[in-house]
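Project channel, design review

CF: Before we commit to the Antarcticibacterium arcticum constructs, I'd like one complete example in the thread so the newer folks can see what an input/output pair looks like. Taking Membrane metalloprotease.
RD: sounds good, go ahead.
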Amino acid sequence: MSPKKLVSLLFLFLVLAGCTKDDPGGSSKIDKSANLKALGTSATDLLSDEKFTSIRVEMVYVTGFEPSQKTVDNLKTFLQQRTHKPDGVTIFKRAVASSNKAPFAINEIVQIEADNRTAFNAGDEIAVYIYFADGSNENDTNTKIVLGSAYRNTSMVIYGKTVQTIANRLNSTDKSTVESTVVNHEFGHLFGLVNLGSPLQSDHEDDGSNGHCEVDGCLMNANVQFGYNLGDLVDGNQLPQLDNLCILDLQANGGK
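CF: and here is what came back for Membrane metalloprotease:
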């Protein structure tokens, strides 16, 4: 073998070896651990700009249960009102196939997230995952239904079929109002409300429903999550807002 060919082969070997060492498999591994923590543990990170200066929201929906543009706009407004994120809020949507597992146990929702989530914390951007499911919660009864659930520090599920059913029942209320109310409510839980990571500044937690506000009309009232009495809160398609006591909790934990 000529010296020139030998040098070429050695150079090729070094290039291939270098690629294998620096980037196994041709792609870097994503660290998901920061997005797999207990509910409320990222409240300060979501509210303040101490560590993260922007929020990226991934809305994953089953075809037929796409959140409306009004829901997207309402959530963006809510986040801008309550968080310090100078680099902004980004929300994107994408469709996925049905899991065909409805009605859902929460461990099934967790597995669906593992199969479909693509947005994770990166640099100074914190990521949130919202799944719009094509079914209901397995624990629904004739007297109590679940419209949504925040189950990790940056994860929530919205039971799209149940939202649709409640919207149809409330003849004077459109679906986007119900959908927005539930999404904003569950984001409130990610913010640590009520007493789930943002410490209480006053005694306003509902003794009969932990994690919820006892003030009538507040966005964090339990009637939002357990939807039979939702009509009491969404009068004339007006979105319920956080009451002053919940806002004080958020402000004390880095929010607005």
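RD: helpful, thanks. Strands lie at 54-62, 89-96, 125-133, 148-152, 155-159.
CF: The chain has a mean pLDDT of 88.
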